[in-house]
Design a protein that fits this description.
- The protein has 66 residues and is mainly alpha-helical.
- It has one domain: Erythroid Transcription Factor GATA-1, Chain A, CATH 3.30.50.
- 38% of the residues lie in helices and 9% in strands.
- It is built from two helices and two strands; from the N terminus they run ββαα.
- It has a two-stranded antiparallel ribbon with strand order 1-2.
- A hairpin with a 6-residue loop joins strand 1 and strand 2.
- The longest helix is centred in the middle third of the chain and has 16 residues.
- The chain starts with 5 loop residues before the first strand and ends in a 5-residue tail after the last helix.
- The relative contact order is 0.12.
- Bound molecules: zinc ion (ZN).
- Zinc ion binds next to loops.
- The site of zinc ion (ZN) has 8 residues, from loops.
Amino acid sequence: MSQIPTVECPTCGAPVEFTAENKFRPFCSDRCKLIDLGAWASEEHKIPVAPDAEDELFSGDFDPRH
Ligand SMILES: [Zn+2]
């Protein structure tokens, strides 16, 4: 008796049988796999906001030494 491990599809959350036969794992389908890859690609194309830009604004208005 062997139980097939299941994972949640990262794209749609559907239960996916994590087997060697499932070439789309951990995704439920080729479509979800492509959607996830597309999401990653679009993330990389976003222009990151400088993390210290806001800090500089605050330090100009507020001097902690006073
Ligand atoms: Zn899915």
